[in-house]
Amino acid sequence: MDLKTKNQFKNMLTQMKDTLTLGLERCLNDSKEEVNGGVPDIADEATRTYNRQVMLNLSEQERSQLSKVNEAIQKLEDGRYGICDECGDRIPVKRLKVVPFAKFCVTCKSNMEENP
Q1: Would you give the distance in Å from CA 92 to the centre of its chain?
Q2: What is the DSSP string of 50-75?
Q3: Second label for 96, Cα 20 to 30 Å away, from 40, 45, 60, 106?
Q4: Which residues of the chain have pLDDT under 70?
Q5: Distance CA 116, CA 104 (A)
Q6: Is the same domain home to 60 and 111?
Q7: Residues 75, 103 within the same domain
Q8: Measured between alpha carbons, how far is 63 from 15 in angstroms, rounded to an integer?
Q9: What range defines the domain where residue 112 resides?
Q10: How far apart are CA 63 and CA 66, in angstroms?
Q11: Residue 35 falls in which region: left (phi positive, over 0), alpha (psi -120 to 50) or beta
Q12: Between the CA atoms of 32, 38, 41 and 44, what dihedral angle is there, to the nearest 10 degrees?
């Protein structure tokens, strides 16, 4: 991978990291605000509980994606970015443009999904 392409992916991954981090911080701040509210009625409490569960699910997905993004950034720095963790072949740039934190080439990922 040439330096220009590597820098493009680093910028893309850094932007993803920043966006995910902001989302997680917003989720944390929202949950703190809910705790500091007054005494809710039953309907308000049900809505808050539901919203809190949705936010927890979203934040779990964001944390998982943030972990993958951080791993991809580390691989960029180590010179291992774009190499399949399973077979060691290069992951095509087209795939990395769609999933910049991809760990596996399409063939290996397909085999994993077909044979769990």
Answers
A1: 20
A2: HHHHHHHHHHHHHHHHHHHHHHHHHH
A3: 60
A4: 27-40, 50-52, 54-58
A5: 15
A6: no
A7: no
A8: 15
A9: 82-116
A10: 5
A11: alpha
A12: -30
Say yes or no: 63 and 92 in one domain: no
Residues 36-57: tens digit of each pLDDT: 555 567 777 777 776 667 666 6
Say how many domains are in the chain. Answer: 2
Is 35 found in the same domain as 5? yes
Helix H, strand E, coil C: the string for 18-40 is: HHHHHHHHHHHHHHHHHHCCCCC
State the number of CA atoms in the 13 A half-sphere of 60 facing the CB: 6
Cα(1)–Cα(9) distance, rounded to whole angstroms?
10
- The reply to whether 65 and 89 lie within a common domain is no
CA distance 68 to 96: 13
Q: 94 and 114, same structural domain?
A: yes
* 8 A C-beta contact, residue 108 and residue 84: yes
In this structure, which amino acid lies at residue 116? Answer: P
**Could you tell me the pTM of the whole model?**
0.72
Three-class secondary structure of residue 99 per DSSP: coil
